[in-house]
Amino acid sequence: MASLLTAPEAQARTLHSDPPQDLDDVLCSDQHQQQEEQQQNFADTALSRCLSGESRIERAWAHWSKLGRPKLIVAPMVDNSELPFRMLCRKYGADAAYTPMLHSRIFTESEKYRDQEFTTCKEDRPLFVQFCANDPEVLLEAAKRVEPYCDYVDINLGCPQRIARRGNYGAFLMDNLPLIKSLVENLVQNLRVPVSCKVRIFPDLQDTIKYARMLEDAGCSLLAVHGRTRDEKDQKKVRANWDAIKAVKSSLRIPVLANGNIRHMDDVHDCLEATGADGVLSAESLLENPALFAGFRTAEWVPGNEESKKDGKLDQADLLVEYLKLCEQYPVPWRMIRAHVHKMLGQWFRIHPHIREDLNAQSILTFEFLYSIVDRLRELGAGIPLHLKETNAATICANGLAT
């Protein structure tokens, strides 16, 4: 795994390197500790099994507070929330981030999969490592491998795609709540790092609240709620239900994050105010504009009054170049890089589709070629600036409101 070292050193796998030293501060364990430290770990785990519900709630909030109560969070995205992209978003205001969804069974079985799909570095914190799973023991084995390098092990209970249906994971586990409960309980009883879950809502609000309370009772320390049902897959046509997220937040005692309809910082402020959530997640909008949390927005979301906006002196090509440099430092599969190029330069390619066609024709990518794509677009004057509101980017404070 990658780490913030020299370029050759950056290609070393984190799972074979020394974990962070401030483990007490992040409540994570080190699987390479000496025997006496391991014995203490076992004692801590035994203690966590005996914690009352009230004590678990207190511990959940203590951990969240130690992390600084992050408000602006990069959501988990298959193949798209990998280390270089997370680091770019962190530079532009993200307080925390999720890894892409990792398949727990493949993660336990394939060293190649672990090497390529999970990379991190010491600056990549707070970090949620997300797994999809339908077997409690397989999930635990996978979670043990990443426990020293993250702040939460997260269970994906929200993926609505056909691949999740075929694999019997994600949102399709909503049909088997006892299995979901066992997934959570097994991790809670055997990990020192807290367990979080990311869910979708049921069509019936009371079913959603019962579901959320079950997860809290099972030991979930943090719940991220996507305010759409399993069948509401088109995010452009179906707005997320913030009222449902508010109802979940009001019904639980653990931290709750809101997911859905976060396209710019005004949405962040409105969502926190409407739901009372402890933070927000953004996915699709960040792919197009990784500087969203710094207050930048694409022209699509700029108010019609020209006096209400100004050129932010930053565009998506600038962000892509920064992303590519991070990819050179922290290598990831080319399929991930290709996807980000299309997302960040999508508007530019619509103006000059022949350059997109040149990209699509490349079966093997190089950084030299990708940098040349940016240069060609700039020469053609295809630049589309990002904008900041005249009042500057809102700052999200600890109380969840903007100043």
From TrEMBL:
Keywords, alphabetical: Flavoprotein, FMN, NAD, NADP, Oxidoreductase, tRNA processing
Primary enzyme class: oxidoreductase
Keyword RNA-binding among record annotations: no
The reaction(s) this protein catalyses: 5,6-dihydrouridine(16) in tRNA + NAD(+) = uridine(16) in tRNA + NADH + H(+); 5,6-dihydrouridine(17) in tRNA + NADP(+) = uridine(17) in tRNA + NADPH + H(+); 5,6-dihydrouridine(17) in tRNA + NAD(+) = uridine(17) in tRNA + NADH + H(+); 5,6-dihydrouridine(16) in tRNA + NADP(+) = uridine(16) in tRNA + NADPH + H(+)
Region (Disordered): 1-24
Molecular function GO terms recorded: flavin adenine dinucleotide binding; tRNA dihydrouridine synthase activity
DUS-like FMN-binding domain span: 74-345
Record EC number: 1.3.1.88
Annotated InterPro entries: Aldolase_TIM, DUS-like_FMN-bd, tRNA_hU_synthase_CS
Cofactor(s) of this protein: FMN
Homology family: Belongs to the Dus family. Dus1 subfamily.
Listed name of the protein: tRNA-dihydrouridine(16/17) synthase [NAD(P)(+)]
Lineage: Eukaryota, Viridiplantae, Streptophyta, Embryophyta, Tracheophyta
